[in-house]
């Protein structure tokens, strides 16, 4: 962790990173537009350092990720949308392994409510 991993799409120091998609860079994390966006508000919140998942983030990185999520929540609310966030983790062996990235999407309230119901159902079923 800490150094850019060669060929990692999310390590800003890697030649594989598409820095043209980056919208904001903080001290510990950044926001980028998703290449395969689900909708027009789909962005990624990504730690600058190469961590495999949000569970592995150091406290100051987690705090900054939370600040970005809070700001996005406010932005979406101003548009009448609600924030849905999810993290996809893949145990990759190539390219230095998975680089944590949190998908963030602004959706209408009805869609957010349905996502909460489905999430609850899955959690209870497991």
Describe the strand arrangement of the main beta sheet, using strand numbers.
1-2-3-5-4
Provide the succession of SSEs.
Answer: EEEHEEH
Query: What structural category do the secondary elements indicate?
Result: alpha+beta
**Which percent range fits the helix content?**
25-40%
Compute the number of helices: 2
- Mean pLDDT comes to 90
Q: What is the radius of gyration?
A: 15 Å
Strand content: 15-25%
Termini gap: 32 Å
Stretches where pLDDT is under 50 for at least 5 consecutive residues are none
Number of strands: 5
Question: Major β-sheet, in short?
Answer: 5 strands, antiparallel
- Shape category: globular
Could you please describe the fold and organization of this structure?
The chain has 126 residues and is of the alpha+beta class. 29% of the residues lie in helices and 21% in strands. It is built from 2 helices and 5 strands, in the order βββαββα. It has helices at 59-78, 109-125, and strands at 22-25, 29-33, 43-47, 82-87, 102-107. The longest helix is centred in the middle third of the chain and has 20 residues, at 59-78. The chain is globular and about 40 Å long. The chain starts with 21 loop residues before the first strand and ends with a helix. The mean pLDDT is 90.
Describe the structure concisely.
With 126 residues, the chain is of the alpha+beta class. It is built from 2 helices and 5 strands, in the order E-E-E-H-E-E-H. The chain is globular, with a radius of gyration of 15 Å.
